[in-house]
Amino acid sequence: xxxxxxxxxxxxxxxxxxxxxxxxxxxxxxxxxxxxxxxxxxxxxxxxxxxxxxxxxxxxxxxxxxxxxxxxxxxxxxxxxxxxxxxxxxxxxxxxxxxxxxxxxxxxxxxxxxxxxxxxxxxxxxxxxxxxxxxxxxxxxxxxxxxxxxxxxxxxxxxxxxxxxxx
Length: 167
Fold this sequence. Notes:
By secondary structure, the protein is of the alpha/beta class. Helix content is about 35%, strand content about 20%. The chain contains five helices and seven strands. The protein has helices spanning about 15-25, 50-60, 75-85, 130-135, 150-165; strands at about 5-10, 30-35, 65-70, 90-95, 100-105, 105, 115-120. A five-stranded parallel beta sheet has the order 3-2-1-4-7, sandwiched between helices. A two-stranded antiparallel sheet has the order 5-6.
């Protein structure tokens, strides 16, 4: 019987859809553990926030949650091996099956070979009509989909970046 609910993502930024998944994990009676991917690919338009900034966003909503970093690798099998190494026993991974996560029609988590239980979340359970990509493009316009604490963190991150650019 699983004890931990694992949620893997980049969380660039953490939004109310992510929040709803974590709440579902908790409602299922599991301890949520968030794995933040692409931690070595930050400071670009797709991953503008560092692991520490993402962790701060998540813990601003869930103060006691465990957040673990997961870097990208050029080799998918290396990435999967690292993922396996940080997932505790008795865990189930919650995930959305998105087209961009498929390679030749296969989801990257399918390569776990059934060694870790997977629980796919469908849009009937959690339906947020916006993607993080849209939020990154204009977070003022989409702030309705952000927890207020995350919105404030994003504003502060932008202020810090602007100050750095002026130096």
